[in-house]
């Protein structure tokens, strides 16, 4: 790896990431390396820095390990990094702190900076790190997947999707006006003037919040709110009534029928935006805690199957392909037995991060249970799904985990199936699980496909 060379037009990390492209995939639907600027790593042990850079590139980052202060200063002037990993003793005892502080001086916006030390450090060293612009501090052994989590936090590489709001109002004019107000605040909106279509629209749009007119010809707002609340999937979606009704008793009665708030027309734009944003953001946060796995942040078993069902419905309606895969880490019990459960957790988190880096934003990844994962791949035929998963499998096997007496390498097996006329969501899950079973019995570290 060059120490301060100009990145090529398509660096190896980007080439690897693009190898995950499906045929006809638009580039904006593919998770290319989220950090297009390089990450600089400066450690006392340059060989260790090079190995760590190589490991991070497996995750799709662009990384440069720099050997000395001169190389660092030359590179940072020409190619500003997205983040810096700096040994406090790089280039000499305590010199990393001084070098980082010197580089940050005069910058209008400080570069995200993480300091590292082989040993536990005292408070003065930590204070010096903070004053040099350090946003985090690691000690002990650096490991690629854990470091990747820190880098993502430092650079805000994980982008949050805009809030989604469904507006149900029989007045097209009012619905469009509400849409414009919320869209100006960066929200994604969809309006519906026929309340009878509400449940189908909910399944398709999956809103974070619903704005509901109180009086409509087909039904009242409270009646529709009750229908929505009959479904366990939407029982926690906030409902805000929006009406010219100014009778407080009627407003309170409506809110007792499945509503969470009441806004009176005409409304102030800022009032609407703030109310919707606060309610929707809080609901999304609570939902994330309910539907995501605490260790990996991936969707849990129940929710990934719900997403498979939703995607199956959409794929049939739009006549698009859909693939579903099940993955399982090989010999996971031996990893726990030989290296301890913390190492097992580290491998699970590492695979979760690797899948998030290597798959598209439009794919859904879940932790199915234990060391087993599930992936829903919309608009993806079987050949493309198999090719992408096999490339991920091959690259994941190259990641090293520091261990004794030698570094640990792990693999996974997978089964993948494509939706066809005879397969509903549950049958697809069963077929993928059977294919995973066959992969295990075929020697592991392979991907088995279920032919249509």
UniProtKB/TrEMBL annotation:
Annotated source species: Pseudomonas plecoglossicida
GO cellular component: plasma membrane
Modified residues (4-aspartylphosphate): 87, 213
Subcellular location: Cell inner membrane
Lineage: Bacteria, Pseudomonadati, Pseudomonadota, Gammaproteobacteria, Pseudomonadales
UniProt entry tagged with the keyword Zinc: no
Database matches in PANTHER family: DIGUANYLATE CYCLASE DGCM-RELATED, REGULATORY COMPONENTS OF SENSORY TRANSDUCTION SYSTEM
CDD domains named in the record: GGDEF, REC
Entry EC no(s): 2.7.7.65
Region feature (Disordered): 1-20
Catalytic activity: 2 GTP = 3',3'-c-di-GMP + 2 diphosphate
Requisite cofactors: Mg(2+)
Protein name: diguanylate cyclase
Keywords: Phosphoprotein
Swiss-Prot/TrEMBL GO biological process terms: cell adhesion involved in single-species biofilm formation; negative regulation of bacterial-type flagellum-dependent cell motility; phosphorelay signal transduction system
Domain GGDEF: from-to ranges: 320-452
Ranges of residues in domain Response regulatory: 38-155, 164-280
Record Gene3D superfamilies: 3.30.70.270, 3.40.50.2300
């Amino acid at each position: 790896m060059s120490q301060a060379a100009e990145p090529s037009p398509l660096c190896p990390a980007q080439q690897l990431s693009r190898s995950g492209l499906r045929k006809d995939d638009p580039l904006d639907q593919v998770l290319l390396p989220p950090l297009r600027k390089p990450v600089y790593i400066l450690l006392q042990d340059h060989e260790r820095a090079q190995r760590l850079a190589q490991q991070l590139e497996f995750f799709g980052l662009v990384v440069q390990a720099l050997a000395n202060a001169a190389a660092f200063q030359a590179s940072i002037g020409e190619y500003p990094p997205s983040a810096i990993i700096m040994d406090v003793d790089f280039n000499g005892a305590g010199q990393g702190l001084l070098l980082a502080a010197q580089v940050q001086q005069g910058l209008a916006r400080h570069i995200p900076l993480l300091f590292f030390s082989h040993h536990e450090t005292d408070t003065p060293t930590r204070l010096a790190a903070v004053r040099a612009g350090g946003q985090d501090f690691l000690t002990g052994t650096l490991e690629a997947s854990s470091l990747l989590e820190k880098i993502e936090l430092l650079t805000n590489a994980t982008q949050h999707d805009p809030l989604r709001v469904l507006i149900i109002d029989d007045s097209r004019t009012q619905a469009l006006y509400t849409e414009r107000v919320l869209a100006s605040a960066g929200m994604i909106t969809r309006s519906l003037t026929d309340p009878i279509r509400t449940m189908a629209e909910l399944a398709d749009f999956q809103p974070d919040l619903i704005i509901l007119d109180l009086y409509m010809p087909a039904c009242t707002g409270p009646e529709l709110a009750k229908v929505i609340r009959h479904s366990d999937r939407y029982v926690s979606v906030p409902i805000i009534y929006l009406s010219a009704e100014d009778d407080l008793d009627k407003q309170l009665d409506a809110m007792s029928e499945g509503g969470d708030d009441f806004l009176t027309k005409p409304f102030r734009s800022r009032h609407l935006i703030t109310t919707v944003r606060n309610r929707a953001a809080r609901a999304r946060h609570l939902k994330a805690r309910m539907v995501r796995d605490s260790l990996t942040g991936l969707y849990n078993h129940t929710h990934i199957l719900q997403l498979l069902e939703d995607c199956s419905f959409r794929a049939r309606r739009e006549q698009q392909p859909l693939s579903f895969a099940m993955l399982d880490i090989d010999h996971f019990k031996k990893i726990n037995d030989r290296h301890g459960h913390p190492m097992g957790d580290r491998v699970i988190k590492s695979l979760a991060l690797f899948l998030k880096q290597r798959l598209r934003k439009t794919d859904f990844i879940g932790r199915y249970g234990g060391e087993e994962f599930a992936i829903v791949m919309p608009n993806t035929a079987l050949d493309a799904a198999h090719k992408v998963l096999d490339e991920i499998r091959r690259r994941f096997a190259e990641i090293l985990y520091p261990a004794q007496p030698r570094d640990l390498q792990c693999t996974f097996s997978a089964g993948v199936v494509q939706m066809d006329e005879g397969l509903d969501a549950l049958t697809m899950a069963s077929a993928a699980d059977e294919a995973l079973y066959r992969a295990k019995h075929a020697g592991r570290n392979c991907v088995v496909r279920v032919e249509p």
